[in-house]
Write a structure and sequence with these properties.
single chain; alpha/beta; TIM Barrel; eight-stranded parallel sheet; 8 strands; binds pyridoxal-5'-phosphate
Length: 228
């Protein structure tokens, strides 16, 4: 069997989104696809652009910095930072990305605003008690929301969360439902939640963005000579 092409895999992802929307009585146009290209190279980003994708997620500022020259000409392509942002990298991040989806502190909001470039931001909320996860503690959310709303250059777009990994996508549901409640409480309409394995559950719980890597690009095998 020949290996599936990116166009084939994109078709499968779109079908999954459409089926989940049908079950949830939602218009598929309300669910946007963020193509997660971390670890993959500029070639894969260009290929994804060629099949119509325009919104890309990257996890590391330095990795994006290396790829940027080779993707800078892709018209209307927008890059989202979805990995944790360190406060000493806010300048670079503001130059490289259109959207910071992983904003998780008042301090980061202040530093990004000080860069004085228009940026869309999404606040990442940590809803599990896993030690390793990043994201804002829900108790800090009101202060972060207020800081972004009071800023001059940041536009608050949504909330994001990453539930603990599980084979069983259904285990993500309470985390997605909780994110929806927090968004409603703050009058926030965009929800970035759901990845390759649990996008259907996220859509049923109201996701307006799903962040999909593996289901589009295949598994992220660590490649020799391609540092993270
Ligand atoms: C890697 C990553 C994704 C994509 O995960 P897949 O399981 O490959 O679809 C989505 N969101 C975040 C924050 C990620 O780090």
């Amino acid at each position: 069997m020949p290996e599936a092409s990116l166009a084939d895999r994109l078709e499968l992802v779109r079908e999954r989104i459409e089926r989940a929307c049908a079950r949830a009585h939602r218009d598929p146009a309300t669910v946007r696809l963020l193509a997660v290209t971390k670890i993959f190279g500029p070639e894969e980003i260009r290929e994804a652009w060629a099949v119509g994708l325009r919104e890309f997620g990257e996890n590391y500022v330095q990795e994006m910095d290396r790829k940027q020259p080779a993707v800078a000409d892709l018209e209307a392509a927008r890059f989202h930072l979805i990995g944790h942002l360190q406060s000493n990298k806010t300048r670079k991040a503001a130059q490289l990305f259109s959207c910071i989806d992983s904003l998780d502190s008042v301090k980061l909001a202040a530093r990004l605003d000080a860069e004085a470039v228009p940026l869309d931001v999404t606040i990442e909320v940590k809803l599990s008690d896993e030690a390793a996860k990043t994201g804002a503690d829900p108790v800090d959310l009101p202060a972060i929301v207020a800081a972004v709303r009071a800023s001059r250059h940041l536009a608050l777009r949504g909330l994001m969360t990453v539930p603990p990994w599980s084979e069983d996508a259904g285990k993500s549901r309470p985390y997605f439902a909780k994110l929806g409640e927090l968004a409603a409480l703050h009058g926030i309409t965009e929800l970035s939640m759901g990845m390759s394995n649990d996008m259907e559950v996220a859509i049923e719980e109201g996701a307006t963005w799903v962040r999909v890597g593996t289901a589009l690009f295949g598994s992220r095998k660590p490649l020799l000579g391609r540092p993270l």
